[in-house]
């Protein structure tokens, strides 16, 4: 941890009117780390992602990716800097095919000269073919290649979540933010997802920050966990330490027990 | 910003190896345009002379309607930005091009009538004027595109509608057309403020260069451009904005850049269409051409054809611009029939004739399901 972190988030925060949704959020992620972000419903976890990715501008503190400041950059610049995310309430491009969803993300790293597109230059045709090839490869991460031509909205819910991850990977990120990727999955699927997340981290050499309500999953795969409650970081450390932290237990018992929170969240996600 | 220059993007590693052979690429690149030239030539010399002036006139209007609808489809169907100002762009292009050929002819040839034969000097002035008209409209598209970044849905529709009305009112304030080369020579600075574009009476006397050849050539160019945009990184970027702006940005799409680009490209072809219309024989362009009624007509073509479907919109434009001719005998019921057709359509196929698809998708699907 003492060596330069890949992603350094120093005391960022935001208020919505009177509500301090996130306060002084601090997190340093080394390369290839796999960290967790947990907390009861409404704790501010998704808001942290929105702050990191520029959907909301932080009102305090600073963020650095490989030492370069991210503050004030619009969301698309943050993605091209190397931070990709998935959405808790799935946001695929429903009318586009599964493949096109991935190709759109993939093309971020291509040149995409519009003049070349219009005259169909060799360079542009080659680039398009390369984007297609790479996107198909990425679909293999989750066995989605067979459904490449279907409209994204016609995929079953679980596959849509997987496609969100593939699409984020296609932007060639250095840091991947996953917002409740296991929501709505059964325990078998969750186990498999846990393995895939580890595999992604190793294969793509990423740092991953995972929001997840399933304690078992988080405790199993995350190296460090940060716990939010009412926008405040109440604990941060390795899983064993978090598990027996009295503040954490209180925060969860104060709202609902483990199971309750989990059920609530997956229901909420399915409604969307 | 952290740069990726250190290691090249994975996606591009194979790009050079995947380039098509030179000859093949050239053929795919200019092939469709050559087909366009051929179609335009057939329309001009194979169809035009045999159908009589009435049908030829309808064919001109169909071609112009296709350019308008296919170009509106870029901003409206692909990028999902509901614009009600397309006629405004078109009128700007028409007036710009018309003033170039009209006053250019007076200066160059002392007369505003058509100069030279097919592909003569006059006709090239006309082509240059059409392209300039497109550029003027594109400039306006840029200016309208900028505020459009902040507006969504209904608000954007109202703003673009306002734009068309502003163009209309401004054109009404223009001065009388200067009628001869002599008058032009003697004109003082005062005669050019306001610009002599005919005011509310319309801009008459524009030389009548528009022919089936040029209309269908520009039509082909519009379709090829729309098609290449749609099936490329550009098209995906625009559709992603239509589908979900937040997700588009999260995937690295610069939505500001693409919205403006969509407006500019779309307006360019609207301007060209306006220029072609201005040079049609029997047409006197007037401020009303910029008004919102004309814009709505074009929007209906896009809605009916299906958002983003080039072939669907093309077909809808062809049908809707000839329909009034067939319904001429029932002139007093024409608007009613028109309205009923639209309502029926909206009830039966709210996604338009083809939705997001192209005509060939249906043939493909049928082949698939029958095999
Ligand atoms: N744009 C906004 N405007 C106002 N309040 C907001 C906004 N976004 C989030 N909030 C509020 O901020 C708080 C944190 O929300 P957030 O979505 O970050 O919670 P979360 O930890 O992701 O919860 P969940 O587990 O249910 O997904 C909530 O009280 C929410 O209502
Ligand atoms: Mg959340």
Explain this structure to me?
- The complex is a heterodimer of chains A (272) and B (371).
- Chain A is α/β, with parallel strands linked by helices and 272 residues long.
- Chain A has two domains: 1-82 and 173-272, P-loop containing nucleotide triphosphate hydrolases (Rossmann fold, 3-Layer(aba) Sandwich); 96-171, no CATH class.
- Chain A has helices spanning 45-52, 75-81, 98-106, 114-119, 122-139, 157-170, 187-204, 215-221, 239-243, 246-255, 258-271; strands spanning 7-16, 19-29, 34-38, 62-65, 68-69, 83-85, 175-179, 207-211, 224-229, 232-237.
- Chain A has a six-stranded mixed sheet with strand order 6-7-8-3-9-10, sandwiched between helices. In chain A, strands 2-1-4-5 form a four-stranded antiparallel sheet, with helices on one face.
- In chain A, a hairpin with a 2-residue loop joins strand 4 (62-65) and strand 5 (68-69).
- In chain A, helix 3 packs across helix 5 (122-139) and helix 3 (98-106) packs parallel to helix 6.
- Chain A starts with 6 loop residues before the first strand and ends with a helix.
- In chain A, 50% of the residues are buried.
- Residues 255-272 of chain A have low confidence and may be disordered.
- Chain B is mainly alpha-helical and 371 residues long.
- Chain B has one domain: Orthogonal Bundle (ABC transporter involved in vitamin B12 uptake, BtuC), CATH 1.10.3470.
- Chain B contains 13 helices and no strands.
- The interface between A and B is large, with 58 and 44 residues.
């Amino acid at each position: 941890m003492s060596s330069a972190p890949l992603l350094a988030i120093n005391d960022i925060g935001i208020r919505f009117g009177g509500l301090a949704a996130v306060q002084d959020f601090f997190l340093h992620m080394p390369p290839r780390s796999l960290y967790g972000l947990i907390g009861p419903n409404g704790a501010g976890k998704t808001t942290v992602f929105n702050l990191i990715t520029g959907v909301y501008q932080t009102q305090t503190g600073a963020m650095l990716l490989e030492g370069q400041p991210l503050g004030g950059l619009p969301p698309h610049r943050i993605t091209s800097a190397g931070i990709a995310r998935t959405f808790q309430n799935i946001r695929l491009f429903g009318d586009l095919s599964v493949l096109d969803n991935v190709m759109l993300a993939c093309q971020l790293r291509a040149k995409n000269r519009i003049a070349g597109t219009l005259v169909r230059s060799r360079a542009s045709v080659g680039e398009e073919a390369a984007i297609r090839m790479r996107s198909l490869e990425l679909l293999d991460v989750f066995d989605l290649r067979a459904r490449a031509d279907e409209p994204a909205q016609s995929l079953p819910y679980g596959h849509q979540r997987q496609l969100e991850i593939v699409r984020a990977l296609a932007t060639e990120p250095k840091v991947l933010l996953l917002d409740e990727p296991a929501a709505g999955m059964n325990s078998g699927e969750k186990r498999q997802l846990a393995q895939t997340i580890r595999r992604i981290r190793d294969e793509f050499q990423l740092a991953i920050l995972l929001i997840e309500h399933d304690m078992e999953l988080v405790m199993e795969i995350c190296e460090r966990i940060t716990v939010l409650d009412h926008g405040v970081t109440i604990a941060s450390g390795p899983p064993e330490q978090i598990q027996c932290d009295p503040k954490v237990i209180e925060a969860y018992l104060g709202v609902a027990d483990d199971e309750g929170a989990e059920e609530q969240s997956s229901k909420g996600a399915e409604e969307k | 910003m952290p740069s990726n220059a250190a290691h090249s993007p994975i996606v591009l590693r194979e790009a050079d190896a995947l380039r098509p052979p030179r000859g093949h690429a050239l053929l795919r690149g200019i092939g469709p345009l050559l087909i366009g030239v051929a179609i335009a030539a057939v329309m001009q010399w194979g169809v035009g002379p045999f159908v009589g002036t009435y049908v030829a006139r309808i064919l001109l209007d169909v071609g112009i309607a296709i350019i308008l609808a296919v170009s509106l489809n870029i901003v409206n169907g692909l990028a999902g930005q509901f614009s009600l100002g397309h006629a405004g762009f078109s009128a700007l292009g028409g007036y710009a091009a018309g003033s170039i050929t009209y006053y250019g002819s007076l200066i160059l040839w002392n007369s505003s009538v058509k100069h030279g034969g097919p592909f003569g000097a006059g006709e090239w002035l006309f082509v240059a004027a059409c392209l300039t008209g497109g550029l003027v409209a594109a400039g306006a598209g840029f200016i309208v595109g900028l505020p459009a970044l902040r507006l969504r849905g209904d608000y954007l529709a109202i703003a673009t509608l306002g734009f068309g009305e502003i163009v209309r009112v401004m054109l009404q304030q223009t001065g009388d057309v200067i009628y001869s080369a002599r008058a032009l020579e003697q004109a003082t600075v005062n005669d050019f403020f306001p610009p002599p574009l005919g005011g509310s009476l319309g801009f008459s006397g524009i030389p009548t260069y528009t022919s089936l050849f040029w209309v269908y050539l520009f039509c082909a160019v519009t379709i090829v451009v729309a098609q290449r945009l749609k099936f490329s990184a550009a098209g995906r970027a625009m559709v992603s904005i239509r589908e979900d702006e937040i997700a588009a940005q999260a995937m690295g799409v610069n939505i500001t850049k693409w919205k403006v680009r969509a407006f500019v490209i779309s307006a360019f072809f609207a301007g060209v269409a306006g220029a072609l219309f201005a040079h049609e024989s029997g047409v006197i362009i007037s401020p009303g051409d910029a008004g919102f009624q004309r814009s709505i007509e074009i929007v209906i073509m896009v809605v009916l054809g299906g958002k983003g479907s080039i072939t669907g919109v093309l077909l809808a434009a062809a049908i809707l611009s000839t329909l009034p001719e067939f319904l001429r005998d029932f002139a007093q019921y024409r608007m009613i029939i028109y309205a009923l057709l639209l309502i029926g359509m909206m009830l039966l196929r709210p996604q338009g004739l083809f939705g997001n698809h192209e005509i060939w998708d249906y043939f493909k699907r049928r082949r698939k399901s029958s095999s």
